[in-house]
Amino acid sequence: MDDDVHKEDQKPSKSDEYDGWGFDLFPERRGSFKPSLKNILFKGRGKENIERIKCEGKVAYCLNKSPLVRIMLGALRKSGCEISPSRHIACEYCDQSVHGGYDPIMNQIVICQNTATSKGTIQGVLSHELIHMFDNCTRKLDFRNIEHLACTEIRAANLTHCGLISSMLEGHSSPFNFKKKHQDCVKHKAVVSVLAVRNVTFEQATQAVDKVFDRCYADLEPIGRRIKGKLVDYDLAYAEAFLMGYDI
């Protein structure tokens, strides 16, 4: 991430607090989740402890087996950002619209135990949110600055989200124009992510993403390559981690 992102003379937009910054999507963050009798009877709620145990088991699997997750863990350790899964990763009940998130106040990744139910989904959430954790630790992001937020969302989408299959499913590319359209997928994902956690307009989110896009899109640390959706990409990234100076 270019240092210019951190030198932008932009003040926090509303206050020095993080209240209302997407935490309504994670009710357990504020202690506001309490399943109603209706939800228990008709929507299968009341099984949060069982969901949490299953989620934590799948998280442990991904921490040990996922090449991208292991690259990120190694990069964090090498950068002096120690991570303890029991402290920094939490399985919680969330709004149905999200699979996970990063809480910069607690420096904690949230895995949505009720929506991220497969190992593949949890691996994707961990990889994406670990980029935010890495950026927060190594680049000292101010998440109140919309351009800082846009930059880390660009990087997370670029490095972990916009592979060929996901890009095609979202209508941004085909096998014949993947390279050209990959940037469109990254921009779309970054704008959507900014809108999910900030009370700004679509135009404001798009403007912030466009302003920092070139330099943040070019920043491939610590994975070193864009994952295009093929298994070999994961293996190559893992094999090349030493080139980035990180131990796995």
TrEMBL record:
GO molecular function, one term: metal ion binding
Ranges where the record places region Disordered: 1-21
Endoplasmic reticulum found in the keyword field: no
Keywords: Hydrolase, Metal-binding, Metalloprotease, Protease
Enzyme class: hydrolase
Feature: compositional bias, Basic and acidic residues: 1-17
Protein name as it appears in the record: Mitochondrial inner membrane protease ATP23
Record-listed E.C. numbers: 3.4.24.-
Organism: Cinara cedri
Similarity comment: Belongs to the peptidase M76 family.
Domain of life: Eukaryota
Coiled coil: none
InterPro entries xrefs: Peptidase_M76_ATP23
GO BP annotation list: mitochondrial protein processing; mitochondrial proton-transporting ATP synthase complex assembly
Keyword Transmembrane helix part of the UniProt annotation: no
A single cellular component GO annotation: mitochondrion
